[in-house]
Amino acid sequence: MSFDKVHQETHGRLSKAVDDVCEEFVLSPEKMHELTNFFIESMEKGLGQAKEDADYRGLPMIPTYVTGLPNGTESGMLLAADLGGTNFRVCSVELKGNHKFSLLQMKSKIPEELLEDETVTSDALFTYLARRTLAFLNKYHPEYLQNGEKLKMGFTFSYPVNQTSLSSGTLIRWTKGFKIKDTLGKDVVKLYQKHLDDQGMSMIRVVALANDTVGTFLSHCYCSENNGSLTSGEIVEPVMGCIFGTGTNGAYLEKIENVKKLPDEQRAELLQSGKTHMVINTEWGSFDNDLKHLPTTRYDIDIDQKFSSNPGFHLFEKRVSGMFLGEILRNVLLDLFRRGLIFGQYTSEDHLPHRLTTAFELSSEVLSHIEIDDSSQLRETELSILQSLRLPTTYDERIEIQKLVRAISRRSAYLAAVPIAAILTKTGVLNKRYHGEVEIGCDGSVVEYYPGFRSMIRHALALSPIGPEGERKTHLCIAKDGSGVGAALCALVA
Ligand code: GLC
After folding, report:
1. pLDDT for residue 307
2. Positions in the chain whose pLDDT score sits under 50
3. CA separation for the pair 91, 223 (Å, rounded)
4. Residue 173 designated active-site
5. Among this protein's residues, is 483 annotated catalytic?
6. What pLDDT does residue 229 have?
7. DSSP characters for 118-156?
8. Do the domains at 1-64+224-479 and 75-210 have one common CATH topology?
């Protein structure tokens, strides 16, 4: 057989295998409907679920005790701290009362050992957080250290906690990589406050605990100049905050009467005091942990079981968020290699570049370059894979890798549309007012930087039960600095 013929056949086999894999990543309109309906069912179940049921694996639907939304006129000077998936941020926020704010911040990358080392304790983590807080005050606000003036702080803690009041909550489980066992079941506000006190910062009072989605929701309400106002005849209303970054999650406003999991007396008390709604942190990363409806490939199973720090949980997040997009691609590529279809220059798996054989070494940023590469011979892709994985590729291989990247990101965005469509449908906000429109505050690296992610969500929304008409009324807005400003807003009402 001639060289050309062999080459064509090899590419043909790879191309066919890749098409089959891509097929598994497609979500049909029927599937969008099925998933959205199941999401609504799961929300209702979660709202009624007793907190103490340890075996419950459904949607957490956590009450946040935030019972009102800002309108942009709030003012004051507050502190905020934000422990996310990759960074810890401390900021001071000055709310100016006119939808505007100014913010000073110090961002630190969480040291690897706090994430990786299983022997690390809560004390080590919170000592580190307090140390960074002190560094921030020393640099930007030494006056508070000297005069001891009291300062309110909101703490954005972007992990599932059982919130018992606006200012307290115990960690249910870590997500996004942390493994520190002794934090489970502990009140994270108490831990942080203790270490602030120990390091001489008792003038700081941590008065509010907020999930990053709650912060994003509130800060979008504060910043949106459309909030409740008439814009060319329509009323635009912020209805949700969501994150598509390292992790994914969303928060929205629910009628208190529907939050059946609140103790009866507490619900009655809230209603009596005139409160009608409460922000709910859905923790939608944990949607369908029993895999009754989520599309599941063998790669998803492997990633969850072999490589993730919380097997069996947050299975929706593992198909959607930035932490997993690259890992899905890595697993597909390894499978194709094992089947003798790609990277034929390597004779065995031991000879592959170690970055390709190491979990979580392929970042979603690399996928974002490949997604939009239209350079001749896909040179951008070649460079990106070479730089990130030290892996040389042929043009034929790159064509197939690009197909895979686009299938993985499309599935992620289509799935991302499911909870949005479900919340819009369940709350009925799209039909609340004639010509009413809604805004969704979004934050996170994927929604902000992944090329086309927002438009893919929009395509999927049009295919979901809200249809093209609902999709047209829905605005996906980037809410910058959500967790800092949002936590400050929570602290303000506390
Ligand atoms: C994970 C966390 C959740 C957070 C989300 C986005 O899903 O469990 O609390 O909101 O990541 O950061």
Report:
1. 87
2. none
3. 17
4. yes
5. no
6. 63
7. TT--HHHHHHHHHHHHHHHHHHH-HHHHHH---EEEEEE
8. no
pTM for the whole structure: 0.94
**What's the distance, CA 94 to chain centroid?**
26
Report the separation in Å between the CA atom of 48 and the middle of ligand 1, taken as the mean of its atom positions. 21
Domain residue ranges of the chain, discontinuous segments joined by +: 1-64+224-479, 75-210
What is the distance in A from the centroid of ligand 1 to the CA of 209? 14
pLDDT tens digits, 232-255: 556 788 999 999 999 999 999 999
Record the tokens describing residue 449, joined without a space. 């930087």
* CB within 8 Å of 134: residues ≥ 6 apart: 199, 200, 201
CATH superfamily, domain at 75-210: ATPase, nucleotide binding domain (3.30.420.40)
Is the domain 1-64+224-479 a CATH 3.20.20.140 member?
no
Q: What count of residues does the chain have?
A: 494
Q: What is the pLDDT of residue 435?
A: 80
Catalytic residue among 132, 167, 187, 212: 212
Does residue 250's CB lie within 6 angstroms of at least one atom of ligand 1?
no
d(CA 305, CA 60): 21
Instruction: Identify the CA nearest to 489 among candidates 156, 87, 137, 141.
Output: 156
Q: How many CB atoms lie within 10 A of CB 61?
A: 23
410 is an active site residue: no
Give the per-residue pLDDT at 1. 60
**What is residue 3's predicted lDDT score, i.e. its pLDDT?**
64
CA–CA dist 57, 289 (Å, integer): 6
pLDDT of res. 115: 83
Q: What's the pLDDT at 251?
A: 98
Q: What's the confidence (pLDDT) of residue 207?
A: 97
The pair of structure tokens assigned to 382 is 């070649």
